[in-house]
Amino acid sequence: MGAFSAGELRSAVGELDGWSIGENDIAITRQFRFADFTTAFAFMTAVALKAEAMNHHPEWSNVYSKVDVRLTSHDAGAVTDRDLTLARFMNGVASRLSAQA
Amino acid sequence: MGAFSAGELRSAVGELDGWSIGENDIAITRQFRFADFTTAFAFMTAVALKAEAMNHHPEWSNVYSKVDVRLTSHDAGAVTDRDLTLARFMNGVASRLSAQA
Amino acid sequence: MGAFSAGELRSAVGELDGWSIGENDIAITRQFRFADFTTAFAFMTAVALKAEAMNHHPEWSNVYSKVDVRLTSHDAGAVTDRDLTLARFMNGVASRLSAQA
Amino acid sequence: MGAFSAGELRSAVGELDGWSIGENDIAITRQFRFADFTTAFAFMTAVALKAEAMNHHPEWSNVYSKVDVRLTSHDAGAVTDRDLTLARFMNGVASRLSAQA
Lengths: 101, 101, 101, 101
Fold this sequence. Notes:
homotetramer, alpha+beta, globular
C-alpha cells in the first residue's frame, strides 16, 4: 500500500510498457493510441469500471483516438501499488484493443 | 439497402463467424462470451457508438460475461446490409477483446 | 446479506418505484424507458460501474430506448440487500436521466 | 456550417450556460462538475455516442467528478455550428444528470 523508494519505483515502472515516471516521482504517465475514437472510448469504459471498483481513478484526457493518462495516489502523495495495478490493467486492455483482429 | 434472397442471406451469414439465421430469415443472432463483465461492457460500449452512428441498433441482453445479440431491420422486416455491417463490426471488436494480451 | 421473508420482500419492493417481484420471490424486475438509445446507454453505463464496484451484476436486455432488468442473488437463490441496493441506484439514475432538462 | 463572426459567436455562446470563448475565438470551453465519477462517466458516454454520430469529437479531460471540455472545428480553424450543437447536447445531458432525483 505504501509508496515506493525511488529504486523500487524505477524497477516497477520499467516493467510497464509505455509508462514514464514524472514530477519528482509522484506520478506515472502514458499515452495510449488507438485506431479511432470508438476504440479509445471502449478502452476508457473498461478502465472506468476497473477504476470505480478499485475506488482509484485516473486523471486522463482524450482527443479522438489518443488517451493521455496520469496516475498518482493523492492520499499518499506518491505512486503506490494501486497506480501500478491500474496501469497494468490499462496496458492489458489497450494491448487487446490494438491487436489485429 | 434491400433485403436479401434466402440464398444470398445464407451465403453472407456463412462468412460471419458465430452468427445464425433465425425466425424465417428475418433476423440474425449471435452469443458473444468474454473473460468478464468489464470486457463484455467495453464491447457493448464500442457497439453502442457504432450503432448510434449508423442509427441502427441491436436487440441485446447481457448476463455477466455473455452478450446475446439479435439484429434485424425493422423497417424492412428482414435482414439487410445494415445488419451485416453491424454484425461484422461486432465480430471485429469481440475478436480483439478476446485476444490474448 | 441474507434473503428476506416474503413479507419483508413485499414491503421493501413496495417502496421501490416500478419494481415487481417474480418467480417465487427469487428475483425482482423492472422496465426502464428513456427518451432515446443514447440516454438508455448512459443509464446502462452508470449501472455497469456501480455493478462492477459491488461485484453484483444485473441480467438485462436493451432494445433502443428500453432497458429490462432482472435482479437476483445467484449465491443466495433469492433476492437480497444487494439487489435492493442496485435497484435503488438504478431508480436514482433513471429518475435523473428522465428529468426535464 | 461556416465559422461565425465575432459578434455572432458572442451572441450564440452567451446563450450557452457555462461556456466561454477562448484563444482568439477558435474554441469554446466549459467545465462540468458532477456528484461523483460514475455520473461524470455516464455523461461522457452519452456525449461519446453523440460525438461519434456527429463525427465531431470533443477534446476533454476528466479528474474524478469533473470534466473539462474544449470544442473546436479543426477543419474550419474556428468555432462552427457543430461545436454549438455538441455544446447544447452536453448542457442538456449534464443538466439532467445533476438534477435532484
